[in-house]
Amino acid sequence: MAKHVIEIAGLYKDYDTPAGVFPVLKDVNLTIDDGEYVAIMGPSGSGKSTFMNILGCLDRPTKGEYMLDGHSVKSLSSNELAKLRNKTIGFVFQGFNLLARSTLVENVSLPLVYAEDQKELRTKIAKNILERMGLGNYFDSKPNQISGGQQQRVAIARALVNQPRIILADEPTGNLDSKTSDEIMKIFDELNQIGNTIIIVTHENDIADHAGRQVRFLDGKIVEDRHNKKQKEKA
Amino acid sequence: MFFSMLSEAWHAMSANRLRTFLTMLGMVIGVGAVVLMMAIGEGAQQSIKRSIDSMGSNLFVILSGSSSSSGSRSASGSSSTLNMNDATAIGDLEDINAFAPISVGNAQIIYAGNNSNSAIVGTTPSYFSIRRWDVESGELFSDSDIRSANRVALVGKTVVENLFGDEIDPIGKTIRIKKSPFLVVGVLEGKGQSFDGRDQDDTVIVPITTAQRKLFGNQIPGSVRMIMAQAKSEKYMGVAEEAINDLVRQRHNIRENAESDFSIRNLTAMAKTASETAKTMSMLLGAIASISLLVGGIGIMNIMLVSVTERTREIGIRMAIGAREKDILLQFLLEACVISIVGCVIGVGLGLGGAMLVKKMIGAEILISMQSIVLAFSVAASVGVFFGYYPASKAAKLHPIEALRYQ
Lengths: 235, 407
Ligand SMILES: Nc1ncnc2c1ncn2[C@@H]1O[C@H](COP(=O)(O)OP(=O)(O)OP(=O)(O)O)[C@@H](O)[C@H]1O
Ligand SMILES: [Mg+2]
Known about the structure:
By secondary structure, chain A is an alpha/beta fold. Chain A is built from 7 helices and 10 strands. Helix content of chain A is 33%, strand content 29%.
């Protein structure tokens, strides 16, 4: 039996708003195995991004248990969480969240800065991955000088640069045309093939069909969790 | 790691050049002011110390004429109520080591068409030992010169410069003081400025008897303008002053409540006061300048706070991809330190330039000590750390998701 990478039990997340406590996640339970390819679906506002932020160790749940690699995230210090975000988890944000003042190479190599790699090595790795993303001509451009689709690819490149085992992507193809989407999904497929755990939020069935498992959120709860028989044959 | 953070700090600063420059300006002015003020203050202290050293130690000057009635201070020493016998009597006191009667005046001195208006001091050879003043070449005059009122003279360096230039050896030459000829027997070593600002080297010293009889034309024979007396040690200066006062009052038959016709000045105490005043002044200058440094530091804090708020999203992104609190803290702290240290370097340069300018324009003595520069640097660095720390820790404590959501 495969190892559990992620175990979520009885997870709640409330937001304190001026209008009172606003529950977003209500008793979420989910276990994901090493090497799984999961698509998270559901209508807008159902709590998908909130859930992903907790998975990515960016936010803490109000209540409930989150075990990552068998360790309770609750008990980790902020330094240990930072290290997880840097090395173990690659996060692709729903917005691109790139540094506007920095070049693409600088943006992509930023996680390596915090991993304390040498500058020459950082630049080499960053350029290499940008080339694979088809951005070989834009090394020294700023994010506002390239298209939205290109920015999304930079964001993906940055998430992958430290070779994380777990990749979390919040609507990574939301801003891409279908051809580019296919190219991006190919990257995720390949990453999954070499054993990475991948969790993708998407609205599109077409994209979700890349995943072997589909989880549907509605109103802060998981309403469907099924094996995907239609998972596209990998080339 | 450190270098890439440094270059990033530089990046962030050059992204907002005008703001960085203005923030830095506060630091530049503060450090510049500290360096300049310390240079002036220490220069003043140094010049006072030098003139005190040149004065001689444990000295009293007894001046003819009363000084207690207001406004007559400048007139003291002008009427000659003291005489040679008073001087001898003072010299016989138990706590007094040495004494020298002095007659002073100004006169025109001529040599071969050059002339100089210098101070003329008539005194005895003990004057030289009291003031620790020796000849640089030639020799001092002797007691026999006093007895026979010889026309011999010792000249100070400034007088030599004015009358003889560099070429001529003054010794053995004849100069004219108030038209009467004097033989130059020695050149005095340089003393520099006295602490009231006179050039002590612009002086000609002659035997007191010669001065009395042939230069100043005293009405009362044997009278002197002042007497210099040296106490045996600093400890007995108080006792000695009292003894001198009693002695001279008694000799002049002054009744109990009547005003003295002379005054005593404790030069050593005056010198001490002067040096303490200079010290206080220089500390005060430094303190005032430090306030501008403080203001500069507050400016840095202000800008760093603005910068943290503006870059909240950036901080969130950095945290999301693995920056630890420590990294964020260091990043902003480094930025504050770079601003304050670069400002400090410019400020030191400006302060030194200003000090040179002051020296040139008003001729004040300037002392630039390594100490003051090191002090300015360390203060600037600590200002950077101190005022940068709060904004930086504010940045480091941000919650990643909230920071990311910040618009
Ligand atoms: N910081 C917050 N404070 C208050 N409410 C919040 C906050 N963040 C999210 N919410 C609320 O939580 C709910 C779920 O938001 P979330 O971003 O997780 O939705 P989502 O499923 O990702 O939607 P979408 O598909 O549009 O991205 C929304 O109703 C939103 O209003
Ligand atoms: Mg979302």
